[in-house]
């Protein structure tokens, strides 16, 4: 009995210790269910990206299939088929015809931006090294933060910038581990051109991500994916007919190749479909930080599938990126809200206030803890 009582006492002391620790550090305020949800959803997106990387590498290495435009075209076609079909059954302002009538040119530009972002980054691999692509692709994060500041009116704190630097440090460690493991022996035929292609693709990714955040938080996920799929299918189809028609005819089709194309399409379709959900509960910057672990997952799988050399630095890089991601999400970014109050005359009042007179108070800037802009207009 004494030993049992002693065990219970120790358990009670441990519970009291952790409860006190949680209260003193205010961990309960930071480690909320929403944070855990964003954490797990973000890593789910990373795993989907990892799936696209592995299937593409198998196609290139084992079957000599290098058709990135075809793979993107299949994904965009699936998005168009599924989400345009959903919009076709809607009525009112969210219907397919109404969206095309009022916003077709905006989504046309967005579709072109997304297609070219994918193309530029993939094309960069022909001219520069994997190391450069992994490092410069992180340029999307400052682009997203800058565009969010001006377009979505997001406001950041010092802790957000510290968290971003931590995540970028983790990427640097990962790339350093790659170099030490001698995985990247190619020098690149034109590194300067390749680096500019990566930067251009990253900038376009940033524009696409910020536009996506605006649409899914103000309209709907189905609208964004349907219109993106419709116009991106058109542009990628044009590129496909120009750039890869000969490569497609040279593919030796087999059940393995079909299976790998299917795996890529499923992972990429899942990535595009679930990305708006994660953006809606967080923001574009947070998502881009979360998917920095995608390369690490690819490396971990590559250790078993492609016989990569293991380095403890990979684990360190993963830990630093995750700490930076959690740190970023423990403090919500703020949105500057412009509140304009209008005072108008109502019928039935005397002539002391003219009917067309509008008294507009000076706009006031205040901060809210939401992640999307809200313009409040109060009429008196």
What does this protein structure show overall?
The protein has 380 residues and is mainly alpha-helical. 71% of the residues lie in helices and 5% in strands. It is built from 15 helices and four strands. It has helices spanning 2-25, 27-30, 33-63, 68-88, 96-124, 130-136, 140-150, 158-180, 191-218, 221-243, 245-249, 255-281, 284-290, 294-305, 312-330; strands spanning 154-155, 334-342, 364-368, 376-379. Strands 1, 2, 3 and 4 form a four-stranded mixed beta sheet that branches. Helix 7 (140-150) packs antiparallel against helix 13. The longest helix is centred in the first third of the chain and has 31 residues, at 33-63. The relative contact order is 0.16. Mean pLDDT is 80; it is low at 338-380.
Biggest sheet features: 4 strands, mixed
- How many strand segments? 4
Ends distance = 74 Å
Structural class: mainly alpha
Our estimate of the beta-strand percent is 5-15%
Q: Which outline best applies?
A: globular
Rg, Cα atoms, Å: 25 Å
Q: Give the low-pLDDT segments.
A: 338-380
Average the pLDDT over all residues and give the rounded result: 80
- Secondary-structure element pattern, one letter each: HHHHHHHEHHHHHHHHEEE
Helix fraction?
over 70%
How many H/I helices? 15
